[in-house]
Known about the structure:
The longest helix is centred in the middle third of the chain and has 25 residues, at 219-243. This protein is 52% helix and 10% strand. By secondary structure, the protein is an alpha/beta fold. A four-stranded antiparallel sheet has the order 1-2-4-3. Strands 6-5-10-11 form a four-stranded parallel sheet, with helices on both faces. A three-stranded antiparallel sheet has the order 7-8-9. Among the domains are: 3-85, Arginyl tRNA synthetase N-terminal domain (Gyrase A, domain 2, 2-Layer Sandwich); 163-243, no CATH class; 381-555, Orthogonal Bundle (Isoleucyl-tRNA Synthetase, Domain 1), CATH 1.10.730. Residues 117, 120, 122, 157, 159, 308, 311, 326, 328 line the site of arginine (ARG). Arginine (ARG) binds at residues 117, 120, 122, 157, 159, 308, 311, 326, 328.
Amino acid sequence: MRLKEQLNRAIADAYAKAGIEATPISVNEAGKPEFGDYQYNGAMALAKQLKQAPREIAERIVASLDSPLIAKAEIAGPGFINLHLSDVALSAAAQEARSDERLGVALKHEPIVAVVDYSGPNMAKEMHVGHLRSTIIGDALANMLEFLGDEVIRQNHIGDWGTQFGMLIAYLEELGEAQTDSLRDLEAFYRAAKQRFDEDSAFADKAREYVVKIQSGDARCLALWRRVINISLGHCEEVYEKLGVSLTREDVRAESFYNEHLPEIVQTLKTQGVATESEGAQCVFFGEDEAPLIVQKADGGYLYATTDLAALWYRANVLHAKRISYVVDARQSQHFKQVFATARKAGLVGEDVLLEHIAFGTMTDKNGKPFKTREGGTVKLIDLLNEAIVRAKEAIKKSGEYDEAEIETIAKTIGIGAVKYADLSMRRDMNYVFDWEKMLSFEGNTALYMQYAYARIRSILRKYGKAPEGEIIVTDALEHRLLVQLLRFEDTLLEAAQKAMPSYITSYLYELATLFMKFYEHNPILKEGVDEKVRQSRLQLADLSAKTIKLGLGLLGIETVERL
Ligand code: ARG
């Protein structure tokens, strides 16, 4: 149920009825229960325009308000309107939501093709923590848009092109064909190859020669290159699998995929006068104090930006995307700003295509420094995830309630969930501190708290053992608030998807779980002596709460367990 939209419609109708000729202002969520469920501040904002006291305007609006959703509208202070929603209307909506697989969330009327560019690891190295945020935020965004009905095309823009591959294949060749095993530890392989490159000038020359050979399509060098990419991609897939991320090989559109289009892109930029020559290179200039975007080097080579321009063209014109979201580190903001502006200027994408850089901050250690191993190296993502699972085992062992077999099965859900939730629950545009203790705590806004709340509710429902029925009856303020919170799900999801803010969902879920716990503390369900109709109603609230938590976490790529 789109609560806000319905309330805004009721307000707009009231304007019309009261003869207020102004663009309706939207409702706000009320911060405190005493301000009602939603607060309307529109009368204040209208005062100047209508040359009338806000309270009088508020009175006119209230007198004309007529919606089954609104039980009471109270004027407060200088002209706020506190809106109290109707239990009857809410109950009916909640009952409907409970029996719907989508929990009452409508599919978009006009779905679009949405490209989400995320993960994008570089193939010469193993995935490191720098790619964690992109991978999980991007996956959450893709899931949310897909659930709302868009046709989502996931694009994994892997870095499989560049001079370092000359060095890697020269080294692979030197080790001999049978040595692909040495690629198992890609980091060590890279280091060894780099050492050869630095120490032996003949090797370095060969590496450079191989770069040219890959680029000119030499079959043998390309075969070696493909082998490196394949193994490297295998490493990534191991990470995706462990993370429970939906990316597959079909989603890979590597940098090299766009190679054949690069000359054409530069040509277009030149003919349109968007790119101009400067010291032999092709550049796009912006402001005076802004570094230009280089699209072709003096030696004819293409760059990261050129590939991104080709990818943009492809996404807009071949995939027909109407929204293209790049889930990439905030440090690439300038790059995307310039790439988007260039693409628009050159007409590579139409005006009707939304281009957005979904920027995120850095994951840091407790001292605010970029996350590193104890030795100061980059942390391999796979090691971090394995550690999460080990730590999850310890955390649940401490509670002493599970046998070994149970611990094995739930540790992965808990550990991976903790890492993902800790990340997604932070505003993505901020840096955040990676803290094992905090993320594996049963308290606070954590995955474990949410998973525990879910399992707790499921255990109540299991104990009851039957499907509850009848009406949802509101007996007190806590039930009312829980009901409103449950029905705010669709608004929250829409907003989270629109702004690409997974943290809106985690905040919502945390509020929901906390509210449920409070409700449950005061309103017994299975206890003897509870009126049967009330019991049935509370069971339904519990059921919808569990379903909402599971769906919300699921969209974020976080699993739940039935017992915890
Ligand atoms: N490979 C890049 C990196 O590691 C990320 C790619 C992001 N996507 C894009 N279309 N540029 O920084």
